[in-house]
Amino acid sequence: MHKTSTMIIAVIGLFVIISLSTIGFITLSTASKALKIEASNRLETLAQQKSAELETRLLTIESAVRNLRTTVELSIDEKAFWGIDQSDYFKSYDAYIEPYVHHVINHTPSINTSYIVFDPKFTDTLTRVVYQRQDGMTIQRADHLLILEEMASNESHMDWLRLPILKKEGLWTDPYYDYFLEEYIITYSEPLLVDGHPVGVVGANILLKDFEQFTLDINIYSTGYAFLINKNHDILAHPTFSIDENMRTIYNGLLVPISNYISLYEHGTYQYTYLDQEKIMAFDRLYNGWTIGIAPPISEVNSGLIKTRRSYYTVFITCIIIFLFIASFASKLLSSPIERLSAAVTTIGNGNFDAPINKELTNYPSEVGLLATTIEEMRLQQKDSFERLLHHNDLLDQEVAKRTKDLLDTNQKLETTIRSLENAQKTIVEMHEQEAIHDLISHLANKLSTPTMTSITAASYLLTQTENKDTTIKGLEAEQVNQSAMLIYNSQSAVKRILDSLKQLISSYSDEVSRYFPIRAHINHTLKNELSEHTDYNLTYRIEGDDQLMVYLPMDLTFKLISNFIHHSMRAANLFESSDINVKIYMKNKTLHLEYDDIIPWQSGMKEHIFNPYYQADFTNGSSGLELYLIKHIVIKAFNGRITPYQTANKTLGFHLEIPQEENS
User: Considering only CA atoms, which of 238, 230, 259 is closest in space to residue 247?
Assistant: First the structure.
């Protein structure tokens, strides 16, 4: 038995552990949820903040370009533009507009190149004003950056000129490589309208590396990074992927779920696994369709939660150690009297009611003393009860002996009664069998009387006609003799079949030998032979089943079974229009199933009486014959199976035979 002190420590310890675990679980769960929400909100806020900064930069560029466009459209002389002296006008207009182009690039640090370009289709020569910021400091005019041969190009690097004129609206191009600058650039340009016609563009180029630097300078925890994609999810800035890659094709579509999520929402957060690392992404979509995203590892986001867990585990283990030390000391003081009382209770439990409890325990100043006093009183009561129980036990033994003797006498009488009932039951069974034999003999007498009387009548006729052997009987034709002989033959054949049936009924089938044979071919052979011998019956048959199905049965008995079926059908063949007999065979769960659909219409009462040899059926003008009785006898006695009549789909009589297969040892 476990010591009481150990149990006290275990119970209190378990309570403390459960309490601390519950409090810790609630605290950690709450902290975890709060940190996750805070981290998610913080990341989303950071993405929106950087998105706003980038939008401000883009809007500043658009505003500068739009102001330059407005200045050009308001200052240009439409008549002079479409006039004969167009080239002279452009020379003077170039000097006028040049300071405005310079002003755009000088007051917008993000712009690398600002320009005004007129479409050569509307001017005699290529007319442009281009300013470029060189080395990030010096601003110089750089008309040489545009040449006439490139103006008619349909390649994507000329979208900055072609698309604004085509769409009559300002737009941002995708990144493209500028061979003069030897840099990837992004262009914002707007169409110039003169008299409502787009005749050129005003725009500005921004170095792609400026966007990359802005994106990569965003610090997110220790190893997190930011990225920038356009509205088609092409990479604009990323620490790993290049600008000629698309988010939906990287790593064979690994990032397609992220791309789909970004397409659905303007901003939000998304958790995913990338290269076996759990990450969380916050993103925000800019007004022009670009998206900026930040993606730190979840482990870095949850670093505060991990520190909290470590602190909790340290405090938890320290509390457990302190508790065990205090509980061990306290339990020894508390458990000593309880252990002594337990020893006394054990003595009483072992049946020793003569050992009293120590008075030191009964006088103990706590609940232990009260418990000891109560147990001592219980000991005295148990001692008295035990003595009285012994006395009652002796009386009970005497009563049990008396009751046992009475039960033995009653059992003897019951056995005598059972033997009498068994004898009576045996007598009843014998009487029932004699009655069944009497019915069968009566039926056979009726069956045999008709062919016997027919044979006697035919024989008497022949004897009368041939009494005088020396005289020739006139008028006695060969046909009449033949008919009389045929009546005798058929009657005797019927008598023979009945006698054969009687022999089958009394046979034990012990001499029948089973063997393997194809059941479908055997049934087909039997039906074909029987019908060929009785051509006056218009019967046809169809057999459904596997040609390769082999069965292990007495072959002769199977022949007799099928023969009795077809003879039963012949008895009613001329009474009904139907002449089709259907036979279906199949094997299921090591049991041969045979379904025989007869031509005889189904009648009420058939299922209960069809196998009685004296059953009266409308289709025979008498009894149904011994065929069905013999069929049932063969199925049950010889094949150890069962047969069930049923109504077919054609409303005719059918029989379902189930014959278990023997194992050939």
Answer: 259
